[in-house]
Amino acid sequence: MSRPGQTENQIQNPLQNQSQSGHFDADTIRRGALACLPLLPSTIIFGAVLGVLAAQRGLSLGELLFMSLAVFAGSAQFVSVDLWRETIPSATIIIATAVINMRYILIGASLRPVFRGRPLWVKVTGMHMVADENWAVSMTQKDLANPGFLLGGGIFLGVVWATGNTVGYLLGGGIPDPEVYALDFAFTAVFAALTIGMWKGKVDLLPWIAAAVGSVIGHYTLPGTWSILAGAGAGVLVAALTWREDMDDDSLEAEFAVEGRDAYGAPEGTNAAKPATETAMETGQ
Amino acid sequence: MTQFPDLTSFSLEAVLTILGMAAVTYGMRLGGLLMADRLPQHGRWAHVLERLPGAVLISVWVPSALSAGAIGITGAAATVITMALARNLFAAMAVGMVLVGVGRYFIGN
After folding, report:
1. Angle at which helices B44-67 and B69-86 pack, to 10 degrees?
2. Which A positions 44-73 lie with beta carbon below 8 A of chain B?
3. Interface membership of A273 toward B (CB under 8 Å)
4. What pLDDT does residue A204 have?
5. Which residues 6+ apart lie within 8 Å of A38 measured at CB?
6. Cystine design at B44: which of A73, A191, A243, A275 (Cβ 3.0–4.6 Å)?
7. ipTM above 0.85, yes or no
8. CA distance A230 to A215
């Protein structure tokens, strides 16, 4: 994905080394796609199950594929297609989608370091193909992943997801039961495994326990996917309460910090990121 | 298969519903990022934001492991342990999934 002016930006960018180079370069997109390869079997089967369901509910294949690429959120699509009728209950479906996908506010927020110092157009284009899976894979990259890596995983999952939809829709049944091959467990497994990569030290312990406890309580007391918000909320609360002045670290997050306003508002290509020390000096912190 | 599914049939109602779904979903994805951009880069908020991905991730899989029963909990534990030891996503997933698949075959849910 080469754009005019991209090379200039790269040269000007002081953080050009490692993951910071380029916004969406082809090699990074390819690496991001490959990193999501373990999710291929389960994504294609669940895509097919959705295809079967969509055919029963009277969506055309075109409408289903349009939904898969425009909404690109598995669990919300399952609920929406399930609610779909001859007279479409649009309001119910859109509200259900909003509730189920509310976690994307948190997922979007947590992507701040991935998009740090990038122009607004990169954020606008890079945030669409963000599913739970490629988000989790990107967040656990050793050298903090860049938007291209995230997008690569998203494109890969989108293609696989839409392929599964089409296969299921055309077959109209006869899809193997995901549970028999534990394919339903693949999503649990990938998120459980990637949690290890998110460990940054002892400071994570209490918020993580709070998140686990909060989500389990939410699971038994709240409907649907509210348990995710309950768990994340508990984790955030405990993180806020356990913060101490001396916890400000020199990790990548802090080291490459730029003022959010600058990064957000800067015109394209002029927002060269500054190291935290410079920014801190300027703002007198 | 009686008829070939029509790729080009779009009802206005369906398209508008899907656009509505897409708008709220994308709005929350981008909105979350832009909001976080406006939070301070140091101190309590930055610390909270750094804990956020782990908290979200745990909240996604812990309840689903629980609802998969004893086999699910065992599978998740095996996945986490394999990942901690081998640092290999594929191996960790394989161990968990094989365990759950075999467990379901022999023990049932």
Report:
1. 130
2. 55, 59-63, 65-67, 70-73
3. no
4. 94
5. A186, A190, B89, B90, B93
6. A243
7. yes
8. 5
Task: Please indicate if any CB of chain A lies within 8 Å of the CB of B85.
Answer: no
Q: Is B2 on the interface with A (CB under 8 A)?
A: no
- Whether B47 has its CB under 8 Å from any CB of chain A: the answer is yes
Closest chain A C-alpha to B66 CA, distance in angstroms:
8
Q: Do B10 and A254 touch (CB under 8 A)?
A: no
DSSP string, chain A: ---TTHHHHHHH-TT-SGGGS-SS-HHHHHHHHHHTGGGHHHHHHHHHHHHHHHHHHT--HHHHHHHHHHT--HHHHHHHHHH--SS--HHHHHHHHHHHTTHHHHHHHHTTTTTTT--HHHHHHHTTT--HHHHHHHHT-SS---HHHHHHHHHHHHHHHHHHHHHHHHH-S-PPPTTTTTTTHHHHHHHHHHHHHH--SGGGHHHHHHHHHHHHHHHHHS-TTHHHHHHHHHHHHHHHHH--GGG---SHHHHT---HHHHHHSPTT------HHHHHHHHT-
Q: Is residue B37 within 8 angstroms of chain A, CB to CB? A: yes
CA A215 to chain CA centroid, Å, is: 19
Residues of chain B found within 8 Å of residue A55, distances taken between Cβ atoms? 5
Per-residue DSSP letter, B39: S
Which tokens hold the place of A158?
């989108």
Give me the mean pLDDT over the A254-269 stretch: 34
User: Distance (Å, rounded) from C-alpha A43 to C-alpha A74?
Assistant: 9
Token pair of A111 as six digits? 């992507």
By the CB < 8 Å criterion, does A188 face chain B?
yes
Please tell me the pTM assigned to this model: 0.78
d(CA A143, CA A217): 35
Selected residue with higher pLDDT from A143 and A2: A143
Task: Provide the CA B40 distance to its chain's centre, in angstroms.
Answer: 28
Is the pLDDT reported for residue B37 higher than 90? yes
Contact B18 A70 (CB under 8 A): yes
